[in-house]
Amino acid sequence: MGHMLKNTKFRSGSYALGIPVGSTTIGPSNPVVGQTRWNTTTNRLEYHTGSAWYAVAHEGNVSVVKDSFTGDNTNSVFGPMSYTYTAGQEAQVIAVVNNVIQNPGVGFEFMGNTSIKFTSAPTTSAAIYVLHNFASTTAA
Question: Which residue range(s) make up the domain with 93?
Fold first, then answer.
C-alpha cells in the first residue's frame, strides 16, 4: 500500500524526488491520467494522458524550420512544405502572409499532405512563411 504526501515540505539542497524508472516495455499495466515516469529506453520524462504516454520536452533549443513561398493572387495552395500535416494540426505551425500571422484553421488548413491551403489566395508577390517544428520534443 502506498503512502500519500500531504502538506509536506521537501528538503532543499542535495536531495531529489525519486520517480518510477523503466524501459518502454516495462511500465504500469493499467496506467492512469497523470502518472509520470522516467523512460530508460527514450531517456525522457513521460506522463500518461489516460490513453497514451507522452514525452516531456527536453531542455534546449528546438530546430525551427521555415518554408517560403510567394503569392500570385490566384493560387491558395502552396507546397511542398518540409513536413506533412493532416487536417486539425494547423496549430502546430505559424503561417505568415505579408507579415500578418494567419489564424490556424481559419486563415489556412492542411490537406493531409505537404501542402498548406489558405482561405483566400495571397496577393501577387506576397511573402508567405510557414514555420514548423514547434511541437517537437527533440532538442537541436
Answer: 65-132
* Largest distance between two CA atoms of the chain: 68
Instruction: Name the domain boundary from 10, 29, 56.
Output: 56
- The verdict on 34 and 80 lying in the same domain is no
Rounded CA-CA distance 44/23 in Å is 10
Comparing CA positions, the residue from 127, 135, 62, 67 lying closest to residue 97 is 127
pLDDT digit string, tens, across residues 39-66: 899 888 888 888 888 887 666 666 789 9
Task: Name which of 126, 60, 113, 122 is nearest 87 in CA terms.
Answer: 113
> C-alpha angle 42/43/45, rounded to 5°?
100
pTM: 0.57
